[in-house]
Amino acid sequence: MIFYKPGDHKEAGFKHDPFKAFISPRPIGWIGSMDGQGRTNLAPYSFFNAMSSNPPVVVFGSGSQPDGSKKDSQRNVEETGEFTVNIVAHALKDEMNETSAALAHGEDEMQHAGLEGAPSNLIKPLRVAKAPISMECEYLQTVEIECWAKPQRNFVIFGRVIGIHVSEEVIVDGIAKAEKWQPVSRLGYFDYATVTETFEMFRPKTAPGPT
Ligand SMILES: Cc1cc2nc3c(=O)[nH]c(=O)nc-3n(C[C@H](O)[C@H](O)[C@H](O)COP(=O)(O)O)c2cc1C
């Protein structure tokens, strides 16, 4: 067994920091936002997850630009208080990757990736029209986490889901079936995985059914 402290991965024999490879697969939150001037922004975040379901709360973790300034998604969400989370189906993986391009503030990655936006019902930011699932979110709060690579900064952005769009095509008999949209997740390095197969397992001493 190898033991190392964060930061000492090279001494432990790793070519690159393997930390993100260990926390995998990570779902990808494809964050749609708008700045105060109504300009659309879209970017993938794999430091992303649901933190509670009642009410549904999601988080995404944002690093900063090399000079410590905030990335556009965080800037917009904090400025306008709204964002969409779009789920990346396997069929959208290349477009998702394209939207991670570092475009200037105010430039639209949705358009850049050849994607169509669709209006949200309750908020201004667009959702990705072809995403199998999109969530409309209101901003709750930001927590800053100490960054060891100063002047860069790390943040976690919290949002409450207030509306959900789901394609009828991914619902089978009242159940949303992941195999239908085949969610793309991030592993370590430049590796990704797609869910193509699932299995069921029930918790001991609890009623069967999703929790
Ligand atoms: C699959 C994938 C996952 C990513 N996850 C993150 C992440 O969790 N946090 C982060 O700061 N950047 C992440 N990035 C990089 C951002 O997408 C990239 O910096 C993007 O330009 C940010 O866009 P924005 O400034 O419009 O928000 C990821 C990129 C890809 C391709």
Describe the secondary-structure layout.
Blueprint: H1 19-22, E1 26-27, E2 29-34, E3 40-45, E4 48-53, E5 56-62, H2 72-80, E6 82-87, H3 93-98, H4 109-112, E7 117-118, E8 127-128, E9 133-145, E10 154-166, E11 171-172, E12 175-176, H5 178-181, E13 184-186, E14 192-194
Antiparallel strand pairs: 1-13, 2-3, 2-6, 4-5, 5-10, 6-9, 7-8, 9-10, 11-12, 13-14
Bound molecules: flavin mononucleotide.
SSE run = HEEEEEHEHHEEEEEEHEE
- Overall helicity: 10-25%
Strand portion, in percent? 25-35%
- Show unreliable segments: none
- CATH H-level homologous superfamily name: Electron Transport, Fmn-binding Protein, Chain A
How large is the radius of gyration? 18 Å
CATH architectural category: Roll
In short:
By secondary structure, the chain is mostly beta strands. Helix content is 13%, strand content 35%. The mean pLDDT is 97.
